[in-house]
Automatic annotation (TrEMBL):
Location within or outside the cell: Endoplasmic reticulum membrane
Protein name in the entry: Reticulon
GO CC annotation, single: postsynaptic density
Family annotation (InterPro entries): Reticulon, RTN1-4
């Protein structure tokens, strides 16, 4: 979250640049070439730094401390209980996704299946315009820009989204009434319909 909200500008910029450059390189190179080249670059950098610090220690210009000690001491292990919790969450998410797809494909609810059909129809046009790698690059850039933009312009964004949500709700209500055979819209006046005046 600190990376996404740019708490450390230098680190966030480095991560975003590395991700975008790595994804862009996949347009011209295979993923094996990209991974191996990046690994070689990282190894050349870390080995050079390690030799440099060792050389300084030999000349008594340094304390001899490992330059990457903080990364080596970082605890990334998981206890058995934590692993079970994460595994259970992953299983629940997977089963929920399978259950949702089953209900959509086998038309448990006609209206929801029609919405899914329309969404897949739009996705076919999206697939004709760009590939998955382009969408992934756009998603990474959006991940590093939209949260910060929302944090700074929250009131304006909430107002704009609220107006869009009202329009979407009205369209959904119209389509739902159309699927149920039409009929007048529900009466929104308190207490129901008012009596007719003579």
């Amino acid at each position: 979250m600190d990376l996404i909200y740019w708490k450390d500008t230098e680190r966030s910029g480095m991560v975003l640049t590395a991700l975008v450059v790595g994804l862009l390189s996949l347009f011209q190179l295979s993923i094996i070439s990209v991974v191996s080249t990046v690994s070689l670059a990282v190894m050349c950098f870390t080995i050079s730094v390690r030799i440099y610090y060792h050389f300084l220690h030999i000349l008594s210009w340094g304390d001899g401390e490992h330059p990457f000690k903080s990364y080596l001491d970082l605890d990334i292990s998981l206890s058995g209980e934590q692993a079970d919790i994460y595994m259970q969450k992953a299983i629940v998410l997977a089963l929920s996704a399978v259950d949702a797809l089953r209900r959509l494909f086998f038309v448990e609810n006609l209206f929801e299946s029609f919405k899914f059909l329309f969404l897949m129809y739009l996705v076919t046009y999206l697939g004709g315009l760009c590939n998955g790698l382009t969408i992934l690059i756009i998603s990474v850039i959006a991940l590093f820009s939209l949260p910060l933009f929302y944090e700074r312009r929250q009131e304006q964004v909430d107002g704009f989204i609220g107006k869009i949500q009202v329009q979407i709700d009205s369209v959904k209500d119209f389509l739902r009434r159309l699927a149920q055979g039409g009929g007048p819209p529900p009466d929104t006046t308190p207490g129901g319909a008012k009596p007719k005046t003579q």
